[in-house]
Amino acid sequence: MSQEPIRERMSGNEAVAEAIRQVNPDVMPAFPITPSTEIPQMVSSFIAGGKVDTEFIPVESEHSAMSAAIGSESAGARTMTATSSAGLALMWEELLLAASNRLPIVLTLVNRTLSGPININCDHSDGMGARDTGWIQIYAENNQEVYDNYIQAFPIAEDARVHLPVMICQDGFITSHAVENINLLPDQPVKDFVGTYEPEEFLLNPGKPIAVGPYSISAYAMEAKRAQAEAMENAAEVILEVAKRFEEMSGRSYGFFESYRMEDADYCMLIMGSAAGTAKQAVDEMREEGKKVGVLKLRVFRPFPEKQIAEALKNCKAVAIMDRCESYNGNCGPLGSEVTAGLYRNKVNLEAVCYTYGLAGRDFTTTHVKEIFGALQSLVEEGKKIPHNQYIGLRTKK
Amino acid sequence: MSNGNYKLKAMLQQPERLTPGHRMCAGCGATIAIRAVLRGLHKEDHAVIGNATGCLEVSSYMYPYTSWEDSYIHNAFENAGATLSGVETAYKALKKKGKLKEGENYKFITFGGDGGTYDIGLQSLSGAMERGHDMVYVCYDNGAYMNTGIQRSSATPMYADTTTTPVGVNSDGKVQYRKDLAAIIAEHYVPYVAQTTLTRDFTDIHRKSEKAIYTKGPAFLNVCTPCPRGWRYPMEDVMEICRLAVETCYWPLFEVDEGKWILNYTPKQKLPIEDFLRTQGRFAHLFKPGNEHLIELFQQEVDKRWEDLQYRCNREE
Predict the structure, then answer these.
(1) pLDDT tens-digit readout, A45-73
(2) Contact state of A213 with B46 under an 8 Å Cβ cutoff
(3) CATH superfamily of the domain spanning A6-250
(4) Which residues on chain B are in Cβ contact (under 8 Å) with A76?
(5) Can you tell me the ipTM of this complex?
(6) Among A170, A200, A225, B51, which residue's Cβ finds the most Cβ atoms within 10 Å?
């Protein structure tokens, strides 16, 4: 590690704001929405206090936030925004345009459930709803990870092999508002790590005008989409390269996912976001009792590391795939669909049970984790049939 | 209506910033208006042109060809205001950080049809105007969603026959009168708002465009631009229809400069509205026997609005 860490305590929102202060982007259009509101507030305070020279655009909606971000990034300015839930849903059309125009915008998403019923608490339905918009999506377990992911977002997005927008996700309230210890990096190494934004082509380039956002007939449009898909494929190696560089600076190591006590695990819980901490705690306690259990915490959801997940699970007997999102497809949530398809394509055959948990902020505890591992074990060892799509922590009729 | 320094012939010798080869219709008022607006840009200045989805966009930038000499951005239908406000803010940010060359000046102009401006893009436009971005929003108002096939908008005049207000035994065409968008934007208290159209010497649109582009802060131009497909007229009539729009006071020429309402033209003899209506197939049903009262109601609305405008322009400071 090249620098002494700065020990601090702060919330996930504060950690992202701190990273923004260090990166000092050119432009931030944003519209407030719980629980991400603090981020534009804090950036506005940095601007008012002379700590950054970012231009803030107080837009009148999230649709306009992403529209202005597209204009700004196309013009050649490093641009970022923040939102949650309905805000991301309102941006949906523009998310697709940001990605298809190959603009390396960074959006920090504080995950909150989508209406209805209206509710301000955490689940992943907002991020999952945008899973096919062409954005890279990186999820965090805690404030440290969201800070580290945010700093890595710009070099990933702006890499010439990628040129795609990046969504840095953290769980609403659980991560965004809870204050935890954190190791911050000094300003200068972060600035050096992120570097300056030097786009190849941009609107404000005298003598070299460009046109952005064409009408494209069928003879051309399909190639554009394929090129975009290839950029997403390229993102995988770039994410790992950037993580390696980040480890050299910080001493903290990142990949597509974290394998926690997976070396000899028979039973695995595949989970994303803050609930991974709960799962790890339960696994520690079960390991004390001699149970061979582990956690696979997914960090990178887009691009989806299908092969690597299949490889990590190939020696397990059963996996619980945990979705903090309902897909309304009659089968399971989005992670359940994608992981099981990936296992099949990679010819890894194990019991896979899909669970829906924590919707709209419903508690998820170590007791739930232990019950799930117990169910997996009785499925494998006693042949006890269980439904392959289950809800956790649901109220039951008295 | 004439301006001493302005010579149309000389202006037309300048290089075009919207080059020929685009796919807009012959007899389209919008194309003529856009070229006129762009002539308001000084030769030495760069521009970024924004564009809401619409006829102009799909006809002027079809990959891999563009008709725009300046940098150009189309994003979506409802967000031309927000998109250009992002571009303009990036310009401020990059200038501040010394990332742009000294002496290279950019102006920001965005074009939207009435669908993208009066209706789906109104919020984005209002936000951009209220935030005070240094940009010009130009609405080419052809009074319906022409790109999707002549559906009514809130800019469509009363009784117009459109594909969502078709004339039939139970319908006289559009029921409502049109929204006054120039007045709505003027109520944002932006530095400059003007309403104009194509006149024989193009002085009015030229002067207003130049003023809008070189006024610091947000400016809005509302330009009446006939559409031969939607209005149903022979393409060579476009200039005559614009003249009648002004002479009947259907489309008065006015500007609101720093809050002061100024009437730019008063017809010597205000022509009856049927002179304007008769030129267009979309109003043909109004001239059938038994529909005289509809023309009368149309005339009353025109008169009322003309009086309102005169009141605004004549009130004491």
Answers:
(1) 999 999 999 999 999 999 999 999 999 99
(2) no
(3) Thiamin diphosphate (ThDP)-binding fold, Pyr/PP domains (3.40.50.970)
(4) 90, 94, 99
(5) 0.97
(6) A170
